[in-house]
Write a structure and sequence with these properties.
Blueprint lengths: L1 H74 L4 E6 L4 E17 L5 E17 L10 E6 L9 E2 L11 E8 L2 E7 L2 E8 L4 E13 L3 E2 L5 E20 L3 E6 L8 E6 L8 E15 L1
Parallel strand pairs: 5-8, 9-14
Antiparallel strand pairs: 1-11, 2-3, 2-10, 2-12, 3-7, 4-6, 6-7, 8-9, 11-14, 12-13
């Protein structure tokens, strides 16, 4: 009888121990599951935040580089400047081969000429290992500029015209690789001399070169930019009696095209002279 009571007590005691062990295991399992659920929600959000932060930082550097270039243009050939850049997880690269096509004509069809340049390009920063982007593979997102980006754009003296970057876009060629492209670019300025009835048009092509195909930068290196020289590529002149136009395109054959200049002849003027000059401004990037 005594042995039976001891066995019963042992069974009750062991069952209580097993229950406590199972309870502890269940608590650990629930805790791990909770961590997994929270991490499954937070990790994509973290990756998206990390990617967005990197993109915004690179965009700010691109804008800084662009501002420096225009400072150099005002200082003239031979001037130099520098900008601090943070490489994050990637590298800078310059790619050439983009076209700029210009066509000059008047409404009366008494004058027509054209010019094309095929060595324009883009300054790009490649982001490596960034999977949190909101855009899909083989897609792009415009970071600055108007919604329609199939044409090149110009800066000119007409306040109604587009004033800004030609094209700053985010492109995603692969799952974990993206690049931010700053495309260069045509600057157009015109003025009309009412005293002598002369319409002067100056078009500047910003042409960038890089020492080496890639700039492998570590964090917060200094990127130097030099304005090497300028060169006149094209000149023409004519006497016009009607309105004058300049069309532009990045495609051959001027399709699609943008009306980058629409000059209305003053009503009291019978005829006026048009002078056209296309100038290439060569800029060099180096570490």
């Amino acid at each position: 009888m005594a042995n039976s009571l001891k066995l019963l007590r042992k069974l009750i005691k062991d069952k209580k121990a097993v229950s406590e062990t199972l309870a502890a295991i269940m608590m650990i399992f629930m805790f791990i599951t909770a961590i997994g659920v929270v991490w499954g929600y937070l990790y994509p959000t973290y990756k998206q935040f990390q990617t967005d932060n990197s993109i915004n930082s690179v965009v700010s550097y691109m804008l800084s580089v662009d501002n420096k270039i225009y400072d150099l243009l005002s200082d003239g050939p031979g001037s130099t400047t520098a900008v601090n850049v943070d490489s994050f997880f990637g590298y800078y690269q310059y790619e050439t081969g983009k076209n700029v096509s210009l066509q000059f004509a008047d409404e009366g069809s008494t004058f027509s000429n054209s010019y094309s340049y095929g060595n324009m390009g883009s300054f790009a920063y490649w982001l490596i290992g960034r999977q949190g982007s909101a855009i899909n593979v083989d897609s792009h997102k415009y970071l600055k500029g108007p919604a329609t980006q199939n044409n090149f754009f110009v800066n000119n003296s007409d306040s109604s015209s587009y004033q800004g970057l030609t094209n700053l876009t985010l492109v995603r060629p692969e799952t974990d690789i993206m690049n931010i492209e700053l495309n260069y670019r045509v600057s157009l300025y015109y003025w009309y001399d009412q005293t002598n009835d002369v319409l002067s048009i100056t078009i500047s092509l910003l042409i960038i070169d890089i020492i080496g195909p890639k700039l492998m930068l570590s964090s917060f290196n200094t990127l130097n930019i030099g304005y090497n020289e300028s060169e006149t590529l094209f000149t023409d002149s004519a006497t016009i009696t009607t309105d004058f136009y300049v069309d532009g395109s990045i495609a051959s054959g001027f399709s699609p095209f943008e009306r980058v200049l629409d000059f209305a002849k003053p009503p009291a003027v019978g005829s006026y002279d048009v002078t056209i000059e296309i100038v290439a401004s060569y800029l060099l990037f180096y570490i």
